[in-house]
Amino acid sequence: MLSLDHFLDLAERPLGTWPGAFVVAVIAVLFAVGVHRIGARILTRIARPYPLMSVVLRYIDTPALILLIILGIGFMIFEAPDTLPFIGVLRDVETVALIVALTFLAARSAGAVGEAIVQAHPLDTDDNLNARRIHTQARVLARSVMVVIVIIGFGAALMAFPSVRQIGASLLASAGVAGLVAGIAARPVLGNLIAGLQIALSQPIRLDDVVVIQGEWGRVEEITGTYVSIRIWDQRRLIVPLQWFIENPFTNWTRNSSQIIGTVFLYVDYRMPIAPLREELERILAHAPEWDGRVQVLQVTDATDRAMQLRVLVSSFDSALNWDLRCRVREGLVNFVQAAYPQYLPRARADLSTDKDHHHVDFAPSLERSGAPQAASTANTAADPVASRGEPSGPDPRAHAAASTAPSPGSKG
């Protein structure tokens, strides 16, 4: 009857030669692949009701297979006798490969956890402020952890070689100069890494935030371990280092809420009644799906020597809707003034004195409108188009009457 020691002795005999070791390695690889497939099917069925676990298993599937294959080959290499040619070199390579595989598996596991948290909090909701906060923290922290894992794995792989360990000891002996040089060289990398952790914890920006950076308006599209990608409204990309957000001021339109108030400026003549404009604004907003019903204001905010400045405040759920709402309101009010009060569009005024009687004349560019009388005023100057054609100089009384006569505030045309 075969004992365990006898079985191990029979298994070690083929490892004395390279053909036998190759056959054992192939068997070990096939065994590792079989274990991976069986284990993956079992774990997939167990994790099916749990989305978080399913995402993690999908991410670590390939790293786990690579690790099992390396372990199978490592069984052959470390069980082979020391007399086998080049076995020492292969053992060093196997050690490095094992460290790399473990690092790959650990990094993918960290990324899988972050991605699982992101998928559990979708952004396509009405109020995605909390989801954007979780997305930013999960992605930035996961990438920071992955960077740390890769650095540790790289150091462990280097320490597997005796020559590197001796170099490391000699470097430690002169740690003063080496540490200073390494610190200066690694300052951008370490600075961005620390800035990434600060952004993940304090969150001055989040994914899908609307920001204005150096006059550029856009949304935060991606936060990596070294930079932030801003998708500008015209589909350009603004790449900003992480450390810039910690050291420089910028505008965040969605820091606490996506709701925003927009402004629309309109310039009209002094004689323009304000009440009809307020009624028209109310009518426009009542039929505007972009308006959230919070803010509706029309005020005279300035009066220059040429016209009144009207400021309209309207609110929307987010900045994209507010942009469309501002355009809708601006177009609607301009069309209303053109149709109902064309004589109250902004005018240029001039005071012409030809004799002792002073004539006050208002003139403005003619309105090209079908069915509407063309009111024009002339001036006795070389730049006047009527004077340049040799027509009688001086103001036209009919034009003067049309320009200076204004309907009552309650009229609509």
From TrEMBL:
Location in the cell: Membrane
Main location group: membrane
GO molecular function, one term: mechanosensitive monoatomic ion channel activity
Biased composition (Low complexity): 372-387
Record keywords: Membrane, Transmembrane, Transmembrane helix
GO-annotated cellular components: membrane
Domain (Mechanosensitive ion channel MscS) ranges: 189-255
Keyword Methyltransferase annotated: no
Transmembrane segments annotated in the record for this chain: 15-35, 56-78, 140-161
Source domain of life: Bacteria
Region of interest: Disordered: 365-413
InterPro entries per record: LSM_dom_sf, MscS_beta-dom_sf, MscS_channel_2nd
Gene3D superfamilies: 1.10.287.1260, 2.30.30.60
Name of the molecule in the record: Mechanosensitive ion channel protein MscS
